[in-house]
Prior knowledge:
The structure holds 2 protein chains of 2 kinds. By secondary structure, chain A is mostly helical. Chain A has helices spanning 3-21, 24-35, 38-54, 65-81, 86-91, 106-113, 121-134, 137-148, 153-160, 164-189, 210-220. By secondary structure, chain B is of the alpha+beta class. Chain B has 2 domains: 3-57; 63-304, no CATH class. Chain B contains 10 helices and 7 strands. In chain B, strand 4 (260-264) and strand 5 form a beta hairpin. The interface between A and B is large, with 68 and 68 residues.
Amino acid sequence: MSLTSVTEKKKEVDSFADEAVGYLDALYAVACKLTRNPSEAEDLVQDTLLKAMRAREQFNAGTNLKAWLFRILTNTFINKYRRGGLERSVLEGPDADPLVDGWVSASTMRHLRDPEQQALQPIVEGEVRRALDALPTDFKLAVILCDVEEFSYEEIAQIMGCPIGTVMSRLHRGRKLLQRSLYNHALALGIVKGEPMPETTTPIEKPADLAAFRTKKRGAA
Amino acid sequence: MSADACKSMGLLLGAHLDGQLDPVKTLEVEDHVAACEVCRERLALDRALRGSLKKAVKLSTPDDVRARMLAAMAGESARETRREDEDLVAVSSITAALVATGEGLDASADRKSTPGSRPQRPSMLRHWRTMLPLASAAALVMAWGAAAKQPVGRGATDTMVPAGLSDDLLRDFVGQHSHSLPPEQADPKQVRQFERYVGVPVRVPQFSNAHFVGGRLVPLHGGERAAMLQYEVKQGTDVQRVTVFVYDPRKIQIGGANLAPRAIGTAEVRVGQTDGYSVALTQHGGVGYAMASDLDPESSANLVSAVDHEQ
């Protein structure tokens, strides 16, 4: 090996690392939400970055590095914390309890998103934080990757290693669960009026069928 | 608006909000939403929720975490390059170091991040390209120095050094000392918190003529971490930097071939010297202390023997 190629190699390693570090904030924020523990989040991010550096030859330059890093993060997290795969098997069981759409009136929803007293806004936001923490991992990941990190459905499907239809259904159900706890919380605070929704419903996920979704789309168009 | 129409909007509203629908579908959803108050509110609630979620999740990485990530990655980069070709790296690093010495190390001092910020490329590159080669160069110089110089101290016969780089850890320490990053913590109480990373209690020793500047965590070869405590010693008008590394001696064994044992009081100390850097090691209460400094070996040995005086 020549002197130049060693220098080149080093340059290449450094510029990859350099680019990866640009996503540190995003990786760390999501790791904190997944692990709910700053020191575990730190370990998770460090594992992710080092794995990415070692495996960087498998990364196709020009494709989405951020999505690739999140894929490593997600896999690392799942391998470490969910060895048994129990949660997944429960989540992907038959759809026993579909969440109902249109459960509250338009005016209730307006109060939820825009409480009349501005002072209540921080309380609502605190509740969003709490409700997000309480979401099952797969829903939480789908919601964060979509709403916070703004990945496309296709990227999320790659990151989470599941079909796009499953991404859509996890997102839909995750958001509904969030809205449900938000609603119940607002109800308790007297921000809205109505009947409480059952919050303890086991979130059982139906892997949505993309083909059926597309057919429906075409049919409706 | 019929309930059925709203029901079929279920998944579509979410996909619309996420910008994932094709133009035809988008128009269809927009038409429905324009006419249906309930779906309009569903969309607005989803949008508001997304805003709250962003606020709930976004946070920027604390500076100490960022510094540790950078150090770990720099270590990985160095390991990889070294695996590629040890000798050539050493030689080219010296060259790089000579070229780079003028550049200065801005380290991580001003790398505060804003959420969603782009990589700060130029400063990062300068950081890695200078710090690592300089560290390897210092280590190489040290090994040459140790091989070429008169053995130090009373244990003269023990200080013969095998040719080449004998000890990665000593090399790490000297590199960290010679191009130290700014401290993460200046408060000895906070420095104690490093215990959970280092694996042994991190107490800040009090030296009679040295002023404690601060401490930070440093990664070592093999994935272990040590606490680096930085001091300044006044000698006349001159200020010398002294760095004490606190480590777990069960996990980290520092090679002794180039270190001469000597006894100071009841403490057993091992001392070595390189071109410009003194290294002195001791253990106290199951905790390892390694000191790197510009002091002469005698002062360095005396200083490290006093690690049991806590700040």
